Task: structure prediction
Amino acid sequence: MEQTGISPIGIAGAGRLGQALGRLLQDRGQPVVAIAGRDPRRTRAAAAFIYKDVLPVSFADLPSHAARVLICVPDDAVEEVAHILATAPKAIDMALHTCGSRGPEALAELESRGAFCASLHPLQTVATPAQGVADLPGSSFGITPGGTGEGAALDWAVEIVRLLKGQALTIAAENRPLYHAAAVMASNYIVAMIDAAVVLMGLAGVEREAALQALGPLVRASVENSLRAGPVQALTGPIERADERTVAAHLLALDALDSAPETVRQLYRQAGLHTIEVARRKAPLVDRGNIELLLRQGTSS
Ligand SMILES: NC(=O)c1ccc[n+]([C@@H]2O[C@H](COP(=O)([O-])OP(=O)(O)OC[C@H]3O[C@@H](n4cnc5c(N)ncnc54)[C@H](OP(=O)(O)O)[C@@H]3O)[C@@H](O)[C@H]2O)c1
Result:
């Protein structure tokens, strides 16, 4: 669906995010014309997912189809792909990359050849293209302008956020690793924490499917309370109540089981130590010194 007056868009990277963003932009009237990937079969399938007329091409061919490129490849490959695009016969006008931990410096080679560049990181988890299409609208996006500052790439990034009815968060380039570490903790580490809970439920005799179902209301209410009232107000449980005997019983049970993975044991202890920090903000005068000692025994730090 090429449109007159709007410069064509190419997607570099035929994975989960490239497909989801491609489809969302296409559905909102944006001229997504081509997608590039490493594997021709996967790239063809990705093109078909976005829209029937989208062309599957190589990275080197992408600039001959699109003046604006959204780079959606793994963090370590951004510079490599920027190099291929920068050395293609046809120059591109602008590029955004979707990596969270890097700023637009990863696109320096394109910038040095006159392209406007910026970073546009969706603060959302995309496990499949279809789930990304459902969940990316309304999300926040971490934006970092390139060396050219308030340029056309920044305007394009803001335009994408507006099209997806999201919120733009401006992140300084040097703060992106911290910003991305926060995203990892809020997403990937919650997933790992749920997995650890399922492991312990399994050791308590509750099978995986039943455990996931049983934990659902607890997880959802904890997340909702934390986001609505803030983590300090949302905190409940034995550490908040300074219930030392309960924490001691948990640790005893965890240490007694050879089958409990060491990572789960350590996670319980380390997350417990940060929970003490949150509990202290709520009730600074309550003594949790013994609980802290119990949790610190056996930590690998
Ligand atoms: N998924 C998320 O939740 C999410 C959220 C926010 C931001 N992001 C960011 O979006 C970017 C892409 O993530 P993704 O989850 O969409 O990854 P993905 O599903 O693994 O897809 C990555 C794509 O890049 C290609 N690729 C891998 N290594 C490459 C290389 N060295 N050179 C060229 N192409 C290469 C892959 O090709 P093959 O198919 O041949 O492997 C694939 O098409 C990352 O920077 C990530 O940080 C992802």
About this structure: The chain has a mean pLDDT of 95.
